[in-house]
Amino acid sequence: MSDKSYYDILGVSKTATDDEIKSAYRKLAIKYHPDKNQGDKAAEEKFKEATEAYEVLRDANKRRAYDQFGKAGVGAGGQGGYGAGAYTDFSDIFGDFGDIFGDFFGGGRGAGGGARRSGPQRGSDLRYNLEVSLEDAALGREYKIEIPRLETCSDCAGSGAAKGSTPSTCPDCGGSGQIRRSQGFFSVATTCGTCRGKGTIISNPCKTCHGQGLVEKRRTINIKIPPGIESGSRLKVSGEGEAGPNGGPHGDLYVVTHIKKHELFERQANDLILNKKISLTQAILGGDIEVPTIDGKKVKMKIPEGTESGQVFRLKGHGIPYLGGYGKGDQHVIVRIEIPKKLTRRQRELIEEFARESGESVSGSKGKIFTNK
Predict the structure, then answer these.
(1) Which positions in this protein are listed as binding Zn(2+) 2 (predicted)?
(2) Is residue 60 one of the residues assigned to a domain?
(3) Is 262 exposed, middle or buried (0-12, 13-18, 19+ CB in 10 A)?
């Protein structure tokens, strides 16, 4: 083994934290692992050095003794040191990184031993996209939806074996779901190829589910849409996802809402925008008009004299409810003055007279220009 300090071997300072030490060792373990560098003795030695250093520095007591007395304080560095038979549990190093050792060994969950898959497992979550009208988003509503999902086979109770038979223990892995083999100086467990990690094999499969233990069925579920929900909101329905293998629990269902475009209203957060046409005389003289609201009712709104096109009026509290809270947003009414395209003879005479009184030049009914001069 090298005479370099354990800190130098890992490339960290003496004040390095546990996470820094773990991260440094992880990088070295990946780089110099024997299975990635087969036949490279130098790489194997570097891997052993890094493993020995990590075995000491990861342990607070060993690290304290090493800092005070060096390698002699932890009984390392000689023939009986930490290289060949010491640190073999890599689950704390690679546990958060999935099947990183699968790249080395062709499968499995790493050198620390993968999880046996023969027991019940949680089912998959499901997603359902639900189109919701703006009215329902504002007022709330209960929807009935139908979803396809995997459920436990009733004929075999999820075992996958035909009635009167049971799954048998895998002869290759002995029911562990793993095949353990030696990799250099430590033992590595890989997923059993015969049973695919289940630990059991089915010689007489169920004819209904074909040995899967699960069948697809359609299920009707009631979904309550709360008032004020927004587009893109996710509603979680616990336990309504797919059933898990081997009798495992159901996953969850996530209903994602999509608010449909409305023909009258435009939503802005909890406010509603409405464009409302008014006549020319209403804009000039003022008056009361009726305005639709999202709840299907109509409210009176006063138009003052001399209202201009594009002017905005607010109807307080007629917007969208605040989700999970109190009160509502507002409704904003944008008035648009509608200019008549056709006039009766009398209407035209009156407007022409109005124009003359206003000192404006206008074209008469026969193209004659009238002025007030």
Answers:
(1) 170, 173, 192, 195
(2) yes
(3) middle
Q: Is 209 annotated as a binding residue?
A: yes
157 appears as a binding residue in the annotation: no
Is 82 a domain residue? yes
Assigned token pair, 8: 């130098």
Specify whether 218 is located in the same domain as 244: yes
Do the annotations mark residue 128 as ligand-binding? no
Q: Is 206 annotated as a binding residue?
A: yes
Distance from C-alpha of 203 to C-alpha of 250, rounded to nearest angstrom? 27
Domain that holds residue 141: 122-153+211-261
HSE, side-chain direction, 13 A CA sphere, residue 67:
12
Do 129 and 247 belong together in one domain?
yes
**327 in a labelled binding site:** no
162, 156 contact by CB (below 8 A): yes
- Out of 46-55, 68-77, 189-198, the most confident range is 46-55
Count of structural domains, the chain: 3
How many whole angstroms separate alpha carbon 355 and alpha carbon 366? 16
- The encoded tokens of residue 175 equal 């029911």
Domain boundary among 87, 108, 138: 87
Q: How many Cα atoms occupy the beta-carbon half-sphere of 36 within 13 Å?
A: 14
Tens of pLDDT along 287-343?
999 999 999 999 999 999 999 999 999 999 999 999 887 899 999 999 999 998 888
Asked whether residue 311 falls in the same domain as residue 275, the answer is yes
Instruction: Give residue 76's pLDDT band: very low, low, confident or very high (50, 70, 90).
Output: low
pLDDT of residue 364: 56
pLDDT digits (tens, 9 = 90+) for 175-191: 888 887 765 556 677 88
278 found inside a domain: yes
The response to whether 213 counts as a known ligand-binding position is no
